[in-house]
Amino acid sequence: MRTGGDIEAPVRRALRFAAAGISFDPRQAVTPEVVGTRLDPMQAAWVLASLRTDCEQDPAQDGHWVMRVRSRHRILGGDAGRTAQEDWPAAEEAPEAHFVLEALRGAPAYSPQAIDALLARADAGAELSRIAHALELAGPEAPGHAALSRLRAAINRRDAERHSKEMLAPGFYGRESQLRRILSYCARGSMGGPARALFISGGPGSGKSYLIERAIEEARRKQGSVVLRLDFARRGLSTLERDALVNEVSRQLGDDLPRAAAELRDLRMRFAMRSDYAPSDGQIAPVALVDAMARAVRSAERPVLVVLDTVEALREQGETHPGNLFRLLDCLLAGGIGPMAIVAAGNECALDTATDRVELTIPLDGLDRAAAGEMLAAAGVPRERHDEIHSASGGNPLLLRLGAEVIDEGGPEALALQSAPQDAAPLPADVLQEMRLALGAGDIREAAAIHDRFPDALEGRSETGRLSLAYLWFSGRWSGVQRLWSTLNEDAVHELIAEERGPVGRAVLEMEAEYRFAPLVRRLSRDGNSARAAVAAALRGEALAMRGGALALALGIAFHGIATMPSSARAREIGDVLRADIAAVRARWLSLVPAVVSRTLAGDARQRQPPDPQAAVLTERLDIEAGEQGRDGEHGFLQDQLRMNPYGLPLQRLVATGGGPTLCAHLQDFFPHLPEFIELTGSRDRFPAWERLSAHAAADAPEILSALGLAADWAAGFSFFHPVADVPEIGRSAEAWRRTVCGAWCYRERPPGVRDRGDQGLAVTLEALLSRDDPPAAARRLLALLADPAHPDDPAAVEPVLRRRASRLLREAAAAVEGSGEARAGAVAELLAEAGLPRPVAAALAVGAADEGATNRMS
Amino acid sequence: MPLAELSRIPDVPDSTPATGDPARQAPGYRGALAVTAESIARQLATDSARVADCLRRIQHGDDIVVTLDILELVATAAKPLPVLVAELVNGDGRAVLYEALMRGSLTGGPPEMLRDAADPEAYAVLESVAGAFDVEKLADLATRCLNFRCRIAVNGQIRGSGSFVSPRLVLTAWHVIGAKGRERHDPSLQIEVLAEDGRRYPATVAFEDPCHPDEWGEAAVDLDDACETHDVALLRIRRPLGYVLGATSLPEEPKGWEGWQRIFLVHFPEGAEWPGVLAEALGRDGACRLVHTARTSPGSSGGPAFDSGLRLVGFHQGRVENQRRLVPVTRFAALPKLRDEIVQDLVPRYLWSLDGSLEGHFVVARTLFFDALHEILAGRAGMLRGIWVRRTDPGTDDHGLGFSYDLLTAFLAAHGRDTRVWRVQLDLDDLDLFDRIAAVALPARAAAGRARSFSAAEDAGRARDLARELARARNDPAWIYFDNPAAGLTARGQLQFEQFVAEALNQSGLRFVIAGLETLNVPYPYFRGLEQAASWPRPCILAEYLGEFGREDVTRTVREMCASIGLNWHDEVIAEMVRRALRGLEQRGGRYRDSDLGLVAERLRDDARKSAAA
């Protein structure tokens, strides 16, 4: 026989040994005391090999094994378990080794009565975990197993109390009046909807969470509140996942009301399994679970305190999310969970989209001198430094604490160091090389994967920093770009462009065009070395590069100046080689320079009769180009120009490399409305095939929007309503380019001969809206599509944003323009666009200006 | 003649008896019947990791595997480790296989072997051409060939050579199993593969393409380049031996050559042990047969030939009028059915049995799980970072969840990914979850600690650091498997778990499977359809639901089994087998309960065994 003899009985006994303890030395499992006989080493090996299929290395003890829970239940359950209880040879000798067996036998410490007594103790501490773990391992056969849910609830309460103590340990200073108001509010819990909250508003470090923690502690102690705390900094919580929220609420309720914990867990499991498999319409919380929670609260006769922390994170997920959350709380109230008090905390704007749900606001300003002094004194800061720190911190509690630490460690000088950018630890050379290769090959997904390994804190000049900068730029993560870009001064930028001839240099050149347009144009026009470096960068690293955009404009202007420059001295300075390179750039970039520039420059070149033959070639090429592109008349020509908007590319990459959930969800919802959007913006759909490309709406949408010439409208319009990262930055650049192309120059360095004709694209959209049967309705619809395409008939997502971001601008614009009709509307629209509102928003808001009554309606 | 060797086969004294173990009794056989403790001691001193690997491989497919670390635990002064290893290997009768596997690690390679071989001419050839080959690589290839080469016996007589090209498929010349005047092999023949583990395996024909009828003649035939007969066959055995012994691979885009080129031919002339020979072959682009200079004999047919780049260039076909010929790989590698058979065996889309054999655990109703793994491994679902195995009924047997771990590891192994899956137990113990994961995946770190003081911000940072560290730990994406906790998690444990999953999702170098934990709050979307998950532009999870199965699930398992082990069942037979497996089971709307899967698997296995035996 393969096993070298009959080892069935020793294996059985070794399995029981392993199942009965927590962790064991495998050598002990094959001793005669355990297996009942002396084994030959080979037999022992077979016994251990058999045992190992049910065990794994103990993560907490080197060299020890631990049996998997399900295997224990199999071995200890049923008849086998009873046999094990009777037939256990080593129980007396190794008490720790039969830890689980004790629980299985219902030994005194594990009896239901003992567990009840343990749960009643305030100082149970670590014993709770030990008993719970033993019962978990012993399985359902253990007499005390039914208490597991209550034990878990007690562990959670213990952890929460420990957390609360740690958080409140530094002491409570000031805010006493606010605390009293909160507790007074909590005492007046509501039994019915709609759910309304006390809102604690304040910036970072203002002490919101601290105040809430203290309020929770007091509410528990003095009012016996059941506390349900939803912190939206937690990534798993979103109102899109309503089920997850209800699960979380029921879990916390079970922790505070342990007698209901088992039933709630059971319902949660059933709900999680069934609702997922056959989901409901997503609008209604699971009735059975809500009923059970309500029963538990009623039976306990305790009020419920719902705490909503970091609400701004919820709003970042989407403008409608705070409202959705309150609708869910309405459901809980309607289900009978109450009396309920709701306390929310977040930055000042966190509940702007749900103002009707705010019953009372407590703004948190800085601590006054007395409270701050008390706090600093407790931190050991000498009294003579208090004023200095208070002034520097503005009374912000977090800054006060940091100030105290800094002074303690190294004096006020250290405070400045805290904000200095810190370069991260260098990455391995092969990772950096991989990133270079990925960027060079244009594989943005691969680059994204590699960038995951990059540290966060970076300085733009370092090897890691420059690669990170290039990746962030090419992948559309422009909010990250700006942080790194800010660490580069002008010299550093020039150095990077000169040193980095591949994708990094190209990325930095594009950034410079975007963020320092005028200085770049001037530098390229005047400095031969810079121009040479820029030419090299512009001709290389094209795999991921954004073709066109601000860089094309800058090069077009700068090199036109060089090419037509009559001075032979300048010609000598830049040299023949550079001249040839410029020609190459022109040849490659000509089609990317918008006509508003290229036509003008060409006209300018014609008038001057340039001596440079290159300029004559330029003129000829532009004539040809203009002739081709202008074939469909001015409107078609404009549309063609808008299709050249290159800023759809970073959007596309942003989505492809995992853009934010709001962005992707919006694109997904927006896509079905695209025909309507095209119509409302007055765009011409000369690309009817786009519908066939819509298999993956979110992924393909940026490309399709670009192809339709709507990239700027969507990006700027979306970010007007949704303050998520990256898209606003891209949207701003895209809109500036669009306006420039449409005749309203938006860059600082205006080329000679370029006149401001006004934003012709804006006029087109305004005309499209005014030509509808009901222009205000069309305007509202256009805004709704950008605000919340999933619910375009619901004004909830539009109105608060308009109130906050556009009402003042609209009032001012309307007051500044006289007259009436379409001309007035056009002027208002132009003013709004100049003030930074994107085309669809500016046009929609200006619709009302054609008729005063409508203005009021829009406002 | 053709294959003069072929026609001479009946005249050659049969040196391999019809009974007994022909491999061990073949002329020149060098394999040992037993290993000694002394040789094991030397191997352990030289390369104990290799010994551990070979021990694991000779027990491939066994339910219980005795590993070297277990033997270390039980070794005593009276029975030291080398003795125990020798006892294990010899006691199992796997000494031949063990030795075959260990040969791959011996130094020297072909030069030594050829010095040992009684063929001074071959050695001279080696000496003269050593510069054309990278001798070290050649040594490696030659030693690997010693494992994946094999003999082909028909009705008990060795008729040719072959080589494993996938776990179950052997490439050989068709005429080894065919006969003059036939276009298909005679199904009544008993075909066997005699592998280097010293065992014989009944084989079926998975693919055949006969030789040209004129090649059976006595005279050399110059076939037209347009000749569409390739004299190639794939033989299938039921045990996936290629996992253990290794396999050569067909080049993706085989290229021909012009003029003379060195080749290395591996074969069994006269059925005898032979270490391989260096020779030259005359290439001509597009030719359907190539001349070569290696000395061959009957029994060499089907032996694989490699070029100096160690790529398979073809196999020896035969000798006519003293002219040896190869069938170049360029002629048959692209044959769709042949390639499909190999690809299917190499990278199965579905595992019908955990170890690919009738003895292994049968797998039913896990199509989505395998499809997802397949897409991930093929690199077509870069943003699909995890699979969440969920139950649709709390009464669902938990075994199905835990079985997912076995499925995952078996599937990765079947795809040639030697990736260890980090299996993490989740329970109510107050071990810090991040420490626990680190202890499993990064054992060099300090042992896991008890829960630390609570700080969500600190935990978020630790989750990110850990996920990054794990992602960097492997070249291939690393896999983590989370077992379903028996009694849920504490609030702290759940929060830490959510944080880790959120960070793991952002790591392209990490993949995970979550079993159960249905009430988990996942911060990313999870999908029920693979197509949507695979094309989603952001990191996401695929949810697979367990709870019930249908007739189509059982049919899929049966079809995969038939294709995998070469059971030529017609659709009616398959339908009948499925009907028998499901008979008497409770069903609702054509859906059966998962709790009956065990019974269905047993019924399938019984019927398949009976059918295979018949």
Short structural summary:
Chain A has 46 helices and eight strands. In chain B, 37% of the residues lie in helices and 19% in strands. At the A-B interface, helix 3, helix 4, helix 8, helix 9 and helix 12 of A face helix 4, helix 5, helix 16, helix 17 and helix 18 of B.
Give a written overview of the molecule.
In chain A, a hairpin with a 7-residue loop joins strand 2 (55-57) and strand 3 (65-67). Chain A has 46 helices and 8 strands. In chain A, helix 8 (126-138) runs antiparallel to helix 9 (148-168) and helix 23 (463-474) packs across helix 26 (503-515). Chain A has a 5-stranded parallel β-sheet with strand order 5-6-7-4-8. The radius of gyration of chain A is 35 Å and the shape is globular. Chain A is mainly α. Chain B is of the alpha+beta class and 614 residues long. Helices cover 37% and strands 19% of the residues of chain B. In chain B, helix 3 (37-58) crosses helix 5 and helix 3 (37-58) packs across helix 6. The model of chain B is unreliable at 1-32 and 105-118 (pLDDT under 50).
Index terms:
heterodimer; A: about 850 residues; mainly alpha; 8 strands; about 60% helix; disordered C terminus; B: about 625 residues; alpha+beta; six-stranded antiparallel barrel
- The amount of beta strand of chain B, in percent, is 15-25%
Strand order of the largest sheet of chain A: 5-6-7-4-8
What is the subunit arrangement here?
heterodimer
Shape by Cα distribution of chain A: globular
Helicity range of chain B: 25-40%
Query: DSSP helix count of chain A?
Result: 46
Distance between the termini of chain B: 38 Å
Number of strands of chain A: 8
Q: For the report, how would you describe the main beta sheet of chain A?
A: 5 strands, parallel
Major sheet of chain B: size, sense and barrel closure? 7 strands, antiparallel
Q: Can you give the mean pLDDT of chain B?
A: 80
What's the arrangement of secondary structure elements?
The complex is a heterodimer of chains A (859) and B (614).
Chain A (H helix, E strand, L loop, with lengths): L7 H13 L2 E2 L7 H4 L5 H12 L2 E3 L7 E3 L1 H8 L1 H9 L12 H7 L6 H9 L5 H13 L9 H21 L7 H12 L9 E5 L6 H16 L2 E6 L10 H15 L4 H17 L9 H14 L3 E6 L1 H7 L3 H14 L5 E7 L11 E6 L5 H10 L7 H8 L3 H14 L2 H6 L10 H13 L2 H8 L11 H12 L3 H8 L4 H10 L3 H13 L1 H10 L1 H12 L9 H15 L4 H22 L5 H14 L4 H17 L3 H11 L4 H9 L4 H10 L3 H8 L15 H11 L3 H11 L5 H15 L18 H11 L4 H13 L11 H7 L1 H10 L4 H14 L4 H9 L4 H7 L1
Parallel strand pairs in A: 4-7, 4-8, 5-6, 6-7
Antiparallel strand pairs in A: 1-3, 2-3
Chain B lengths: L3 H5 L13 H4 L11 H22 L9 H7 L6 H11 L3 H9 L6 H7 L3 H10 L5 H14 E6 L2 E8 L4 E5 H4 L13 E5 L4 E3 L1 E6 L22 E5 L5 H4 L13 E7 L11 E7 L6 E3 L11 E4 L4 E9 L2 E6 H4 L3 H11 L20 H11 L6 E8 L7 H16 L6 E4 L8 H9 L14 H17 L5 E5 L8 H15 L4 E6 L10 E2 L2 H6 L4 E7 L1 E3 H15 L5 H12 L4 E2 L2 E3 L3 H17 L1
Helix pairs in contact in B: 3-5, 3-6, 17-18, 20-21, 21-22
